[in-house]
Specification:
The protein has 15 helices and 12 strands. By secondary structure, it is an alpha+beta fold. The protein folds into 2 domains: 175 residues, no CATH class; 101 residues, Alpha-Beta Complex (Polyamine Oxidase, Chain A, domain 2), CATH 3.90.660.10. The chain is globular.
């Protein structure tokens, strides 16, 4: 079933907050953080006064199973990112971004396959111990760009109790994706056709994502099938063949007699990020933006931190880039770093990364009483 007007149910509830964020993000964030101690489900029950059937229906049709248990702040920001953003990509592939960075750094300064197992504070820097050297390597400053669960496996100095709690507690969800390659882009030729965009189902493969590039081409095409959170757990114990079979089965249920899925199928490849060095996507629980966000972003001596969980924009590459910029600003003591290749002589606007005032906003823990 394709996503339709069901998403408008959510927008009816959160549109004032989306509008406030669009007009002034800092002020808008200060408003939504008041409800950060609420899960989105709790907000729908206690504030919007939805009944359980409506909540469950809208969650199935627009989201992932149990996602509404995450914080109100999380869901509002995610809706803003994915419904109002102006989407852009890098021509000829996103891999050009890290390759471009590698050219600036110099390939001779990049070591792959060197697993870090210990970091150690020293008087004038940081020692790094990794699997490809018997002796530590010393750096002036170190940037730890990895998710909290992976960071926990590394032996670290004894940082502040609040920092250690943030590393333990910040919530990540399982994330699964499989790409299935077919002889033709049959999804564009059935009735109704799908030319870009996505469909949401209540099957194990919750989201079908249709490529927005190459629309109308006659050659082969790739469909992406996604599952997040509780839905992704079903795929964790499956091997590659089982995952492919399950994805094909779900496609057959959706397309029925319109398409011979088996005849169209060429190959498939899946990934479950929970299996990849303890990764996934950041989805904060209630109270985590308020209580842990700023703490997690703060450096510890000469050790700095980056990752999509350290931006307000979770689950996608924007958050990773956003946090990387903040980490560079922190390391260099420059709150307004110029672009590497500025296209104009005008300085870019300063980005305010300090959410400490927002975190102090009075929580709406007894909303009903305050409203009456």
């Amino acid at each position: 079933m394709q996503q339709d007007g069901k998403s408008t149910h959510i927008r009816e509830v959160i549109w004032p907050y989306l509008d406030a964020l669009k007009k002034d993000f800092a002020k808008g964030f200060q408003e939504i953080i008041k409800f950060d101690d609420f899960s989105f489900r709790a907000y729908l029950v206690q504030v919007a006064e939805w009944d359980e059937d409506r909540i469950n229906y809208v969650e199935v049709m627009t989201s992932q199973t149990n996602q509404f248990q995450n914080s109100f702040t999380e869901l509002v920001i995610e809706n803003m990112d994915f419904s109002q953003a102006s989407w852009k990509t890098i021509e000829n592939g996103m891999e050009r971004l890290p390759h471009g960075c590698a050219q600036l750094i110099g390939s001779e300064n990049i070591f792959t396959g060197a697993e870090v197992y210990k970091i150690e504070d020293v008087s004038d820097g940081v020692n790094i111990y990794h699997s490809e050297s018997s002796a530590p390597v010393k750096f002036d400053k170190v940037l730890m760009a990895l998710p909290p669960a992976a960071l926990r496996t590394i032996e670290t100095p004894t940082w502040s109790p609040d920092k250690m709690h943030a590393i333990r507690a910040l919530h990540f969800e399982p994330l699964y994706k499989i790409g299935l390659r077919f002889k033709t882009r049959f999804w564009e030729k059935v009735s109704p056709p799908s030319k870009g965009g996505q469909s949401i189902t209540d099957l194990p493969s919750r989201w079908f994502v249709y490529p927005s590039y190459g629309i109308g081409d006659n050659g082969p095409g790739v469909l992406l099938l996604y599952a997040w959170m509780t839905d992704a757990i079903a795929f964790l114990p499956k091997n590659e063949k089982e995952r492919i079979c399950l994805g094909l089965r779900d496609l057959k249920k959706v397309y029925g007699d319109q398409v011979d899925i088996d005849d169209q199928f060429i190959e498939g490849y899946s990934i479950n990020w929970t299996d990849e060095e303890s990764t996934g996507d950041a989805m904060f629980f209630p109270g985590q933006f308020r209580n842990l966000f700023n703490i997690a972003r703060a450096p510890e001596g000469n050790v700095y931190f980056a990752g999509e969980h350290l931006s307000v924009h979770h689950t996608w590459i924007l958050g990773a880039l956003d946090s990387a910029l903040l980490a560079c600003q922190q390391m260099l003591g420059e709150p307004n770093i110029m672009p590497l290749r500025p296209t104009t002589k005008q300085n870019p606007p300063k980005h305010d990364y300090d959410y400490s005032d927002c975190i102090k906003a009075k929580p709406m823990a007894v909303y009903r009483d305050q409203r009456t």
